[in-house]
Amino acid sequence: MKLKYIWVATIAFLLFSCHQNASHNHNTEAEHEHEHEMHPGEEHEHEAEATESEHEHEKMQYTVYSNDFELFAETDAMITGEHNDILAHFTFLNNFKPLEAGKITAKLVVNGKTVSQTLNEPLRKGIYSFELEPTTAGEGKLYFEIETGGEQFEVIVPEVDVFANDAELHNHHDHVDEPSAVNATVFTKEQSWKIDFATALPLEQEFGPAIKTVAKIEPARGEEEIISAKASGLVLFSNNNLVEGKQVGNGEKLFTISSSEMAENNFAVQLAEAKSNYETHKANYERKSELVKDRLVSEQELLNAKNAYETSKAVYENLSKNFNESGQMVKSKMSGFVKQIFVSNGQYVAAGQPLVSISQNNKLLLTAQVQQKYLSLLPSINTANITTMHDNKTFTLEELNGKILSYGKSASSDSYLFPVSLEIGNHAGFAPGTFVEVFLKTVTSTKAITVPNRALLEEQGIYYVFVQQTPEMFEKREVKIGGTDGLRTEITAGLNADERIVTQGAMQVKLAKSTGALDPHAGHVH
């Protein structure tokens, strides 16, 4: 009985479903027939509405550089009588970080008519959102007056088009070539503000051949002194902290050389003898100085007594200054640091034996060896760039207060290389006895386009840079390179001098992911 009711219910459900589908199909066909009966005029009205919608979403982008700021502004196409939103990004050029606080006034000037708005703080760090309503059509200027940190700045967008209506905008848009986005990467301002980032124009400068070589660092002449023993004896360190690298002052006591247990050259005996001679000759000179008044001694006898007194005084003062009853006192003759200790505590030394070397290390001597093929370039070397090997940092000779001293006029018999000597001021990362990489730069009148080495990226022997299309879109561009001076590299093909490139943070731009098709007028989403 239950089975019978189940079959009846199933059949009823299927009949109801078929009826609903037939009704839906009938209504759909009626709708299609109604659409086909639409008049041509109505179709044009829909097309006009679509075109107007497109204009509402169209965006303009402006990039301007002043002496202090980079401005990247995204704005609606400006039409008189309509509100226009301007999203402006302000970046300091000295560090490419955002303007975090400050009052900015935006002024749009067209045919003498001005509309403006002042914002006392950013929407977010570096981003100000203005709203202007143009009153006059034509080509105008957009001014941004910035007050921050007690200083005032101005950034000017020189050519801003304001249209009378949508039709004029549409006609203008049809004649504008959109920037190419082929092989481009999106890298937003917010991304660039979070890293060490910078862009700049290539330099068109005199750029001659640079000789790449290696130089050994040594103390400069007069910057190091070796202290030797003045007498034989046993070396006793003044304190246990006397180690290599320790800072010492001028006149600081370093060692004592003792001879108290030695039968010969005993300092105590020599000092006592010198003191006795000094006191004896002093008394004799003073006595004769009184007798000569009564003509009891001759002037010659007085002169001989005086000479003996002065000689014994000099011997005694010298011994007492450098020696005591314990022995010779060895003192530093300059302020600096202990470069090397040649003896150990308790060691016997002979007179004249080196004990320690003290170095001021204020100036360093670099000796580079150059191959014979560069012999003709040696007279034209005028400066250099120097790269440390442990951390790969590069400095100019000027940054190190350095100079070219000389270059060799002949090669040594064992190496057949020509020495070039440079002097630099001491700097962190430079130590005597180590090696550095040197790029010897030569004088030239030939100009070339150059970029910083950190702007170049390399893939399987192919070099490329990121060329800025906008401050948020960068084109990966292959370039051909020439020589390098350690800081900059010559570009022989692939880049013009007026194309701005990423000079810091290129690797992060490479790793940035592009999503979808890139439309330079699609607007910026925040």
Q: What can you tell me about this protein's structure?
A:
With 526 residues, this protein is α+β, with helices and mostly antiparallel strands. It has 7 helices and 34 strands. Helix 5 (267-291) packs antiparallel against helix 6. Mean pLDDT is 82; it is low at 1-55 and 514-523.
Topology:
Blueprint: H1 2-36, H2 40-57, E1 59-65, E2 69-76, E3 78-79, E4 84-92, E5 103-110, E6 113-119, E7 127-132, E8 138-148, E9 151-163, H3 166-173, E10 184-186, H4 189-193, E11 198-200, E12 203-206, E13 210-219, E14 224-228, E15 233-237, E16 247-248, E17 253-258, H5 267-291, H6 299-322, E18 323-324, E19 327-331, E20 336-341, E21 348-349, E22 354-359, E23 363-370, E24 381-388, E25 394-396, E26 403-407, E27 418-425, E28 435-442, E29 447-452, E30 457-459, E31 462-470, E32 473-484, E33 488-493, E34 501-504, H7 506-511
Radius of gyration (Å): 43 Å
Number of strands: 34
**From the helix content, strand content and strand pairing, which structural class follows?**
alpha+beta
What are the segments in which pLDDT stays under 50 over at least 5 consecutive residues?
1-55, 514-523
The gross shape turns out to be elongated
Q: Helicity level, as a percent range? A: 10-25%
In DSSP terms (H or I, runs of 4 or more residues), the helix count works out at: 7
Distance between the termini: 68 Å
Task: Summarize this entry quickly.
With 526 residues, the protein is α+β, with helices and mostly antiparallel strands. It has seven helices and 34 strands.
